[in-house]
């Protein structure tokens, strides 16, 4: 009986450690996205995504469009690398299912003049956890109406 309890505890502990490790890895990927976009660090921003990730966003022209990670990082290319641009991100949730994950983040601009909710799909790859899809919606607009 003692051996059975020990075996159960060992398996349970191993699963918990593995989940915690995955959680931290997903969190690191999301922080690369947040830091890269907040400090105009294009390489760090792009490192959060798979090369063929799809970003479903409404462009500045108001039209829905699909962007590549390279196109998205281009939004920050004319700003000084490493300089804070006023964009702040906060991870709201992470949910992991084996080798896939979903996450939600709040992204806001200076003085919260604009606020977005970003939703992410992530996949564990041979290069670690990477964002494979992202979408966002602006949630502060009702305050301005």
Which short descriptors sum up this protein?
single chain; 145 residues; alpha+beta; six-stranded mixed β-sheet; 3 helices; 33% helix
Please describe what this structure looks like.
- This protein has 145 residues and is an alpha+beta fold.
- Helices cover 33% and strands 38% of the residues.
- The chain has three helices and six strands; from the N terminus they run ααββαββββ.
- It has helices at 2-38, 42-47, 69-73, and strands at 49-58, 64-67, 88-97, 100-108, 115-125, 128-138.
- A six-stranded mixed beta sheet has the order 2-1-6-5-4-3.
- A hairpin with a 6-residue loop joins strand 4 and strand 5.
- It starts with a helix and ends in a 7-residue tail after the last strand.
- The model is unreliable at 9-17 (pLDDT under 50).
Strand % is 35-45%
**Overall form:** globular
How would you sum up the major sheet?
Answer: 6 strands, mixed
- The amount of helix comes to 25-40%
N-to-C CA distance: 67 Å
What is the element string, with H for helices and E for strands? HHEEHEEEE
Low-confidence stretches: 9-17
Tally of individual helices: 3
Question: How many strand elements?
Answer: 6
How would you sum up this structure in a few lines?
This protein is an alpha+beta fold and 145 residues long.
Provide the fold topology.
Blueprint: H1 2-38, H2 42-47, E1 49-58, E2 64-67, H3 69-73, E3 88-97, E4 100-108, E5 115-125, E6 128-138
Parallel strand pairs: 1-6
Antiparallel strand pairs: 1-2, 3-4, 4-5, 5-6
